[in-house]
Amino acid sequence: MAYYIRSFTVHYILGITCIQDRSNGKIGLKQELYIDKLIDRYGLTDSKVVSTPSDPNMILMKNDGISNSCDKSLYQSLVGSLLYVALATRPDIQFAVSTVAKYCSEPNQSHLTAAKRILRYLKKTKNYVLWLGSNDIDLLGFSDADYARDVDDRHSTSGYVFMLGDGCISRYSGKQKGVSTSTAQAEYIAVSHATKEAVFLRQLLSEFESADIGRVVIKEDNQAALSIAQNPVFYSKTKHIDVCYHFVREVVTDGQIGLEYCNSKDMIADITKPWSKFQFEKLRLKLGLCDIKWEDC
Description:
This protein folds into 2 domains: about 10-130, no CATH class; about 135-275, Ribonuclease H-like superfamily/Ribonuclease H (Nucleotidyltransferase, domain 5), CATH 3.30.420.10. It is of the alpha+beta class. The longest helix is centred in the middle third of the chain and has 27 residues, at about 185-210. It contains 9 helices and 10 strands. The strands form 2 sheets. The chain has a 5-stranded antiparallel beta sheet. About 35% of the residues lie in helices and about 20% in strands.
């Protein structure tokens, strides 16, 4: 008995629209229809749009002494919907969503306003596409930290971005578990998170390619963090850092990853911080996110 296999092209799956550009072999992912549903569900159809997902002049806290409490179920539902968008196709809102997600247990009006701002930003940029694929398949990572960002417990924020060719295939933004006593320590902890992801992606790609893809380069913009990772002599400055973070040194020595300095202006992982419109749009484009109508995507 003969079997015939028919090839299918995926156009829409789980709220994600898939676009294939056969001219350059790229695949685009966007969630315009899903975002429209969210805008209608949360009553923002007539709201004004904004150019950035978070206000760099606005600092959220558990209790500011002014804001009233809000509907917890509404807030949690909104944040959950935004988390799905951030994880699926929109790395540009990763930091903003992770920030509002911290207040799901006791949200207030200021937190709800910040969450709705993200949706107002998505309303303006719902046509944006995350492009994946390139002739260049080298894996490149960027690691960064935002020192003492949380005003409630003074924990820093770690963030990383991994690019495969021109597209972002992995990203993370989250609060560190402990208090860092310096920017170097915060950056070093962020590098350790990026290193674990680099080892995983390296193994995954090796299975796809059936060959060793070689050393994965991680860019970092803090010279002190690079010195700690590459030179164990800095004992007096690092003796308080948890042993688990020194995993970085072992992986660097094994040649699985390589750490290189990156100027802050070229640090793509900086999108894990709140920025002004100009800098944010610059970083967003480097992630491979752009309007489908643009010619320079």
